[in-house]
Write a structure and sequence with these properties.
The chain has nine helices and 21 strands. It is elongated and about 65 Å long. The strands form five sheets. A six-stranded mixed sheet has the order 9-2-1-13-21-20. Strands 14, 16, 17, 18 and 19 form a five-stranded antiparallel sheet that branches. A four-stranded mixed sheet has the order 6-7-5-15. It starts with a strand and ends with a helix. The longest helix is centred in the first third of the chain and has 20 residues, at 58-77. By secondary structure, it is an alpha+beta fold. Flavin-adenine dinucleotide binds at residues 6-12, 29-32, 36-40, 42-46, 48, 168-169, 197-201, 205, 225, 265, 307-309, 341-347.
Length: 362
């Protein structure tokens, strides 16, 4: 088949690589001039364990399977990564009950090695921590997300696939059993299959597909996640997370592959795409981080970057799952739409890609 993948973020690149491995002819259309300039370059670069998501959800399945696939891929393609482990910490009895529930959910989701430990055991691992107990996830890690995307691109191109940069897709319609796709500048080409991996642009693009019912396009709700970098000497070796908050995992401490620490992301509901980080948000960061790291020095946080989560649910709603609308659901052959691929989309990408390519055959 001739397959068009729209979007060269981590999900589009993973789908394109999987389609090329299956022997399809693959073109990726990317509106920007490089790979991974969207959500995929504005995240925590954490390889998630998979314990937060409800049993049977799309996120639970792809996060756990995708994580295992990702570690194998990193090893075989020499993508820099580290299985550094993570602690989810409890500051009081109510939070302890919450993290115990996460441990139970994680075991149900088949996450390996989860262990509840006491405050002293947590401090033996990370002496600066303040907590009464923690959930240790040894399978959680960090990855160089850009190196991962470069490796996906390399394999796609080795198998004859190509990426067309500065190429915005403006619409598509069924014609003579194929998808007639309209590109910016007025060009039109036909494909057997089309996969919409446009991230924050997925809804607008789906609405521009003449035969795809507008009623199937979910609302796009944007939740910005701001990060602050730590200007002092790093003190933690593992990722440190508080108990989760509404719509996010709580302001956590992530480390990069050089060992540097940063904090975030928080949750800021926005109406328009905007990538500025308001320095005043530091006040709430100090407050939240000091609940588990009282030693955080004054004046040590500097505004860093932010990313925008393409959510399908708002602040007062139950967290929506990833939405993959495939031919079996909507009835149009050769079309897969991917909506709401927020966290853990990076971790899940290789697993999502396998399923998407299977949908193209169905
Ligand atoms: C703050 C934050 C933290 C996160 N942390 C993690 C984490 O630690 N671990 C994890 O697993 N996941 C994390 N995620 C989730 C992860 O980053 C995303 O799920 C993933 O990057 C989504 O990739 P994507 O390819 O779908 O989107 P994108 O990377 O945004 O790619 C979409 C691409 O489509 C292009 N495009 C849009 N419209 C068109 C069009 N009409 N024509 C052509 N091209 C188009 C865009 O230019 C863009 O390059 C985080 C997300 C956020 C926001």
């Amino acid at each position: 088949m001739q397959v068009l993948v729209i979007g060269a973020g981590v999900v589009g690149l993973a789908v394109a690589r999987a389609a090329a491995r299956k022997g399809h002819e693959v073109i990726v259309a990317e509106a920007a001039s490089a790979i991974g300039t969207g959500i995929s370059s504005r995240n925590s670069e954490v390889i998630h364990g998979g314990m937060y998501y409800p049993s049977g959800s799309v996120r639970a399945r792809h996060c756990v399977r995708g994580r295992r696939m990702l570690y194998e891929f990193c090893a075989s393609h020499r993508v820099p990564h580290k299985k550094c482990g993570k602690l989810i910490v409890a500051a009081n009895a109510a939070e302890l009950a919450k993290i115990e529930a996460i441990a139970v959910q994680g075991r149900r989701n088949d996450v390996e090695g989860l262990e509840m430990i006491g405050g002293n055991a947590a401090r033996a691992l990370e002496p600066e921590l303040s907590c009464i107990g923690a959930l240790h996830s040894p399978q959680t890690g960090i990855i160089d997300g850009h190196a991962f995307m470069l490796a996906l691109r390399g394999e796609l191109e080795d198998r004859g696939g190509a990426i067309a940069f500065n190429t915005k897709v403006e619409g598509a319609a069924r014609k003579d059993g194929r998808w007639q796709v309209k590109f910016g500048g007025g060009d039109e080409f036909a494909f057997d299959a089309v996969v919409n991996c446009a991230g924050l642009g997925a809804q607008a693009l789906a609405r521009a597909m003449a035969d795809y019912p507008a009623t199937r396009v979910p609302r796009l709700i944007m939740a910005k996640g701001n990060y602050f970098s730590f200007t002092g000497r790093p003190v933690f070796k593992r990722l440190i997370y508080p108990t989760p908050v509404v719509a996010g995992l709580g302001v956590h401490i992530t480390i990069d592959l050089a060992g540097r620490m940063r904090f975030g992301p928080d949750v800021e509901w926005i109406e328009r795409e905007d990538y500025t980080v308001d320095p005043r948000r530091a006040v709430s960061f100090y407050e939240r981080i000091r609940t588990y790291w009282p030693g955080l020095p004054d004046g040590s946080l500097a505004p860093d970057y932010c990313g925008i989560r393409p959510k399908l649910s708002g602040p007062k709603e139950a967290q929506a799952d990833f939405l993959i609308d495939a031919p079996a659901q909507h009835g149009l052959p050769g079309l897969v739409q991917m909506f709401g691929i927020e966290s853990p989309g990076l971790t899940s990408s290789l697993s999502l890609a396998e399923d998407v390519v299977d949908h193209l055959d169905s």
